[in-house]
Specification:
Distance between the termini: 85 Å
Number of helices: 13
CATH superfamily of the largest domain: Peptidase S8/S53 domain
Number of domains: 2
Strand order of the largest sheet: 6-9-5-10-11-12-13
Order of helices and strands: HEHHEEHEHHHEEHEEEHEHEEEEEHHH
Helix content: 25-40%
Low-confidence stretches: 1-21
CATH architecture of the largest domain: 3-Layer(aba) Sandwich
Number of strands: 15
């Protein structure tokens, strides 16, 4: 008996972290076409908001078949196998379902299915409603003229002034009229009225949980709330964020109970939703390199911007006029040391972390990408960054590229407001070109610490 127990334990440990064949779990089922969809590229108002269409028109981004919702006939056939629908993806042309055993064979036998891939070892059962996002063409109420100085901005001053964001604010550009999406693991206490400092609930007009698909994303990890506060908070004489007049739509994409490829699918679907409702700028303080199943792990050669579904989705969102700011990663002192996905996307604006003196923080991940591109793009304060405490009462100091990223994202929203006729590419190019090591970018700090006042002046000069 003792020997048998040893063998059972040995087998148990040897199987840990391995992907079981045809396991019960969540699967991405991709389709070869959208045959039978009732939608058309000639009538995009049926599936894209007015904001989304305006942004695309400004970027001359065409409506393509990729934007069309899925074929109802394909979805119906998938459900007839007994699989349970979880997520739909227009851009990936497929669905995520809970399935096992005979259902998997039935899915693979469908003539329009090209691939069935395990993305998580657990099953979810609730169906997903689309988010309701009201009044998104209406900007936040204008804040009365305010002093832009250290006393008024309180503990938020260093977050802002290090990148000359105080100049943008002094010129009246505080993110008004810009819609910012925030992807993270949860946003508890954000509905507590003192968390952001505004009484207007339209500051956060919508939130959406892709992980549990219940009624709110205002729960889960406190990480998202901390990140959001660095951009959105407005507590005069105590703490003001980098874009206090922007609107924010919150997406829970990160599952705190485990790391699986499904989180990257969540990320990609969140970008589709953000595009559809008209988001201008996204902050994602997230990254992926290793997972619960070892054979899902990325290798350095995968950091090509074309392998991770989240990285590919960033490229697609950028082509549609969005700006996606993301943390580069905190692996600089680890054996891995490199950035993760989706920071490897060519169109991701990947942010490294700096010490207060402008030097690279020891944990900030290195580039380049596997195909030799310089990363990160720029770097911002990432050590002892002031943020609203998770309970909404008081401040905290936090470290990581997770904090550097929203500081930049907030100021990108301000720059978006300041030069509304600029394309997303023009905005990113201007920020890189005026950062403090633009003449000699490297794979530690990228183009360096941004100077948003100089970027704004450069954009104005290009329009004369």
């Amino acid at each position: 008996m003792r020997q048998l127990l040893f063998l059972l334990l040995f087998c148990s440990f040897s199987l840990a972290g391995q992907k079981p064949a045809e396991a019960t779990g969540m699967y991405l089922v991709t389709f070869k076409d959208k045959a039978g969809t009732p939608y058309s590229t000639s009538n995009p108002a049926e599936y894209l908001s007015e904001r989304a269409l305006l942004r695309r028109a400004a970027h001359k981004a065409p409506i393509t078949e990729m934007d069309l919702p899925l074929s109802p006939a394909h979805v119906k056939a998938v459900l007839e196998t007994g699989a349970t629908l979880w997520l739909k993806s227009k851009w990936m042309n497929g669905v995520v379902v809970a399935a096992a055993g005979p259902q998997l064979k039935a899915l693979r036998d469908l003539d329009f299915v090209t691939e069935v891939t395990l993305v998580a070892p657990v099953q979810y059962e609730r169906a997903s409603p689309l988010p309701v996002v009201p009044n998104l063409l209406k900007p936040a109420p204008q804040v009365a003229s305010v002093p832009v100085d250290k006393r008024f901005y309180g503990f938020g001053w260093d977050n802002l002034a290090g990148m000359k964001g105080d100049s943008l604010h002094a010129w009246g550009f505080r993110g008004r009229g810009v819609l910012v999406g925030v992807f993270d693991g949860g946003f508890p206490n954000v509905n507590y009225k003192d968390f952001l400092g505004y009484d207007d609930p339209a500051t956060v007009p919508a939130n959406y949980d892709l992980v549990e698909q219940d009624t709110t994303a205002l729960d889960g990890s406190t990480h998202g709330a901390t990140v959001l506060s660095t951009m959105a908070a407005h507590h005069p004489f105590f703490f003001i964020g980098t874009a206090p007049e922007a609107r924010y739509v919150l997406f829970k994409t990160e599952n705190g109970r485990g790391e699986h490829r499904l989180e990257e699918i969540n990320y990609a679907v969140a970008l589709e939703l953000a595009d559809s409702i008209g988001v201008d700028v996204v902050n994602s303080s997230l990254g992926y390199t290793t997972f619960g199943y070892k054979d899902m792990n990325y290798k350095y050669r995968d950091l090509d911007g074309k392998t991770s579904p989240a990285s590919v989705a960033i490229t697609r969102a950028f082509q549609r006029g969005m700006i996606i700011v993301t943390s580069a990663g905190n692996s600089g002192s680890d054996d891995w040391k490199y950035i993760g996905t989706p920071a490897d996307s060519p169109e991701a604006f990947s942010i490294g972390a700096l010490n207060a003196d402008g030097s690279r923080a020891y944990f900030s991940s290195y580039g380049p990408t596997a195909d030799g591109r310089t990363k990160p793009d720029v770097a911002a304060l990432g050590v002892d960054v002031a943020a609203v405490a998770a309970n909404g009462r008081g401040l905290t100091g936090a470290n990581g590229t997770s904090l550097a990223s929203p500081l930049v994202a907030g100021l990108m929203a301000c720059l978006r407001q300041a030069v509304p006729d600029a394309t997303n590419q023009e905005l990113l190019d201007a920020v890189r070109a005026t950062a403090d090591q633009a003449a000699k970018p490297d794979n530690e700090r990228g183009w360096g610490q941004p100077d948003f006042a100089a970027a704004y002046r450069r954009l104005l000069a290009s329009r004369k």
